[in-house]
Amino acid sequence: MAKKSSSRVALLIVLIQLLLLVDERYAQSAMNCRCVEKHRCKTEGSTDVVVLPSTITPANVQTVAGDIDLRFDENHCERVEICCEEKDITNFRLTEHVAFDRCGIRNLNGIGYRLVGDKIGVSEYGEFPWTLMVLINQQVVEISKQVYLCAASLIAPNLALTAAHCVKQKEQYFVRAGEWDTNTDKERFQTQTREVAQVIIHEKYNQLHHNNIALLKLDKPFEADENIQTICLPPPDANFNGHDCFTGAWGKDKFEEGRLQNILRRVEVPVVPHDKCQDAFRSTRLGPFFVLDKSYMCAGGEENVDVCTGDGGAPLVCPIASGNDRYFQAGIVAWGIGCGQKGIPGAYTDVTKFVAWIYDKMAALGVDPAASKYSLL
Fold first, then answer.
1. DSSP string covering 60-91, please?
2. How many domains does the chain have?
3. Strand bridging mode 49-52 / 114-117
4. What CATH number should be reported for the domain holding residue 145?
5. pLDDT, tens digit (0-9, with 9 covering 90-100), for 187-221
6. Are residues 294 and 316 in the same domain?
7. Is residue 265 a part of any domain in this protein?
8. DSSP secondary structure string, 165-228?
9. Which Gene3D superfamilies would you find in this protein's record (predicted)?
């Protein structure tokens, strides 16, 4: 027994020494590097890979970027960073000039980063460059902070499209473009935030939430970038029934007990014909006589695949047949019965019903509509 005990002690000592050696080498390696954005570290054969955990960490319900505990990887760097040796750190701009010249271009594979891991329901970085955050100022521990309210879409450099129910209060709103992961500000391209100078709610928006649409005129235009682009407005006669479309923002992952998500979500949903959607709603607590207003369209119905609380105002975008990864905005996230109930789609403001209204308001505001008009060029 004594021999066995002494051999175990000897083995334990050897293991401890090995661990100390590894830790010492790791510490020495860490001392020779510092955390920088992945795209700024250029070593032979390097690739910009962002590893997603098996479960995405939800964002704090009340806060946005800069006010949430940051996640760290094994090198104590943020997820979009890497511990890089000084000699390999570069400072460069990926693009010198980007313009708002072609709306609705989806960056299918993201911009610069390649996501690996559990990507279900998570968008690539810069995949939907027209999706915006709507923010308000809120007192948090006696400090005024900008907090996430809902979503919107960019239809002109200085004009955002959202749901009226999101912006019906007398608040000072802000709009952020280029956001992706609210847990970090170290992404490849910077975000931009603008103050809302004017809120234009549809004249016939009412307590029943019919005509649930609004425009946000910004105090100054966004500057075009790889992660900031406009979405195309559809023709008034467009029909998206049966199309598989995309939506998503930073809303809750579940109804009631869910939490806001820190990474922009990607939710793929089929467009459901108006009459079938009305029938589905009549099977719920809305009752057999419910009438779905003509200002709405519907999408979804697959169990656990849906937008939820906090996604209001987000764009529903559908592919343009001849567009090659180009998209029209078909709808605006409006309301639903719970989130992700099987056979129950969500209700979206039907943008095709309001294209003329949008262009009329653009003209009155002196906003150039060119950035939201689709062309093959």
1. PTT--TTSSPPP--TTS--TTEEEEEGGGB--
2. 2
3. parallel
4. 2.40.10.10
5. 889 999 999 999 999 999 999 999 999 999 999 99
6. yes
7. yes
8. GGS-SS--EEEEES--BTT-S-SSS--EEEEEEEEEE-TT--TT-TT--EEEEESSPPPPBTTB
9. Trypsin-like serine proteases
